[in-house]
Amino acid sequence: MKKIILTGDRPSGKLHIGHLFGSLLTRAKLQNDYETYIMVADVQALTDNFSNPEKVRSNVREVVMDNLAAGIDPKKSTIFIQSMIPEIAELTVFYSNLVTISRLQRNPTVKTEIKQKAKLFKDSVTYGFLGYPISQSADITAFAADLIPVGEDQLPMIEQTTDIVKKFNNIYGETLTLPKALLGEAPRVKGLDGNAKMGKSLNNAIYISDTKEVIEGKVKKALTDSQKIRIDDKGRPEICTVYSYHQLFNKENTEKIKKECQSGGRGCAQCKKELSEKIISFLEPLQKRRKYYEERPNLVDKILKDGTKKARKKASETLKKVKKAMRLDYFE
Ligand code: TRP
Question: pLDDT tier at 185 (50, 70, 90 boundaries)?
Fold first, then answer.
């Protein structure tokens, strides 16, 4: 039997190159050898967009198209909508008994996010947002997933899931599958502004669907070594955002670029121009695939509808086992 992969994205915006190198490209590669489930996590997106349902709704299709653009083949992978799988919500309730408030408050990713969303969670964070790692554990275990391809920021969620699985199996008997995280090629991609993380809500991202002009404009403004002003100033590639992108999109030339930059033989403007060209040509085939689906919205809907049906079947099998283990299997 094939091992199972589950991963997903929040539909709170289009996906960017951080998602691409963190998880999307890994999924596309592994879909040949694993039973692959890709979730559009609309329920999770609502945890910090609850006043903005239209935003979440309108990004569902975008996120699906970004996955298809990255090479996800709907014949091989199952793409589905989280809110259409009520079994996930049920599991979330059951798991809530196994997680303490202080455990949730210690989650480093959630902590950072609460800080970033200070405006939204002025006085106090919602129960739903603080608890989303429990819901994510339900996402993962509902599909008995073995491997979770994610970026580094998601490691605390996988750890939370492992805790829940161990506790559940210990109390109710061996039922749930223990998952493992699988980090992508670049588990953390810097933002254009030099922020440690590229993020939808941080306004520092290059999107998979960005046009040539937009990419050129963004790269021009990207943060470099602030002490390197003239071409012959010696630069520090290790702290330069532009260099970190060369390491992704222009692998064959990174050594050369590093030496030139360090010895004062390379200007930032030229370096940025070369980078833009590499990004644009890397994204070209992805954008071509994306365009195919953009022109066929009914096909995208059909992929989601078929995928959701298949996913629901899988999740209901797990829920049945869980209820039996918890002595909640009263009658058919
Ligand atoms: N938290 C993930 C993100 O912000 C999205 C997600 C939801 C997810 N459920 C998941 C990722 C299950 C992996 C597995 O991008």
Answer: confident
